[in-house]
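Observation: inputs received (chain + zinc ion).
Thought: call the complex predictor directly.
Action: predict_structure
Action Input:
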Amino acid sequence: MTDALVDVLARRINHEKGDAGVVVVTSRRVARIYGRGFLDPLCRAIGAGKPLALPDGEDRKTWDSATRIFDKLLANRIDRRGWIVAVGGGVVTDMAGFAASVFKRGLQWAAVPTTLTGQVDAALGGKTAVDFGKGKNMVGTFWQPAFVCLAPAFLATLPDRELRCGLSEVVKTGVALSPRLLKRLEDCGEDILAKDHEKLCRIVAECAKLKLVIVAADPLDRGVRAVLNLGHTAGHAIEAAGGFQKWNHGEAVAMGLLVIASLAVECGKMKPEEKRRVYEIVERLGLAPRIRPGPEDAAPFLHLDKKSIGRRIQVIVPGPLGRTTVKTIEPGELLKEQYWSWS
Ligand SMILES: NC(=O)c1ccc[n+]([C@@H]2O[C@H](COP(=O)([O-])OP(=O)(O)OC[C@H]3O[C@@H](n4cnc5c(N)ncnc54)[C@H](O)[C@@H]3O)[C@@H](O)[C@H]2O)c1
Ligand SMILES: [Zn+2]
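Observation:
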């Protein structure tokens, strides 16, 4: 990691926070990789003490972890002008943003996402949360960060599977909003998988901009922002069907995207060759696992969808590429055998 990034970031934080206190929140794994080269000099430059390194994993995205952030804020005597800087994946930025939103009724915060999922999705748009009970993101707020620092250089150390997971959200964004982004994935898929820095910078910037236009139009997720859920209705059911182990979020969303694309072809919104294109992109990016679920696996989990209205569910139907429509359907409509044939 370059000193230049520390410099730019520290200058921005110091300029915005003045002499207010600041706490840096990260994860243990990120602290191990980026402690000496990035976190320590950053903390020195902004006058923060040692960073708080929380345990990794979705199963640690808990109220308990949030209270550790509160403890740290109290110990550092952070007052209402104070700041949190979150450096890490979506788990860290979601939790740190949540803590910032409620501590003393709201601190400022900045996000430095270090995963592709974080840079194209999680750290953008101000949704913060911890998991609670059986529900993912059950307790949360909308609380926009003062700024988000997108530095694809962090992705150099990201495991391939995590990178692909983030790419799934890029495919989703392309199918929903931008044929140009899809074309870029087709043209440079291999370079992106090989972590070509310049190509990664391009797709991160392009995808982030597309998301932010939607967020700006609907910051509280009451209307057009639903488009970003494309592929997520079947995707969430697939994720749950695999016990959150067998298929990760990205793989599940990619498969969910193919299911809803099949439905889109059936109802005349998408041409079969457009669906074929999406399928090929998903395959090339390594997002279609060899063992794939069937409708009977997903069925028990479809009604759990947060967007359900009574027994019916609201889905985003893609097509033509770059456009979508909203449709309310019976869960059974997503479960037609031919939508799960993966071709
Ligand atoms: N707020 C939102 O709008 C939104 C959107 C999408 C996802 N999310 C949330 O984001 C979370 C998923 O985020 P994620 O995919 O970033 O997972 P994650 O935060 O669990 O990170 C994955 C793993 O990679 C490690 N890591 C982070 N940066 C690294 C790097 N540069 N090099 C090596 N390892 C690194 C992390 O420590 C972690 O172990 C979920 O909890 C999801 O609910 C939120
Ligand atoms: Zn997602």
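Thought: report the result.
Final Answer: The chain has a mean pLDDT of 95. The beta strands are 22-27, 52-54, 83-88, 108-113, 127-132, 135-142, 147-148, 308-309, 312-318, 324-329.
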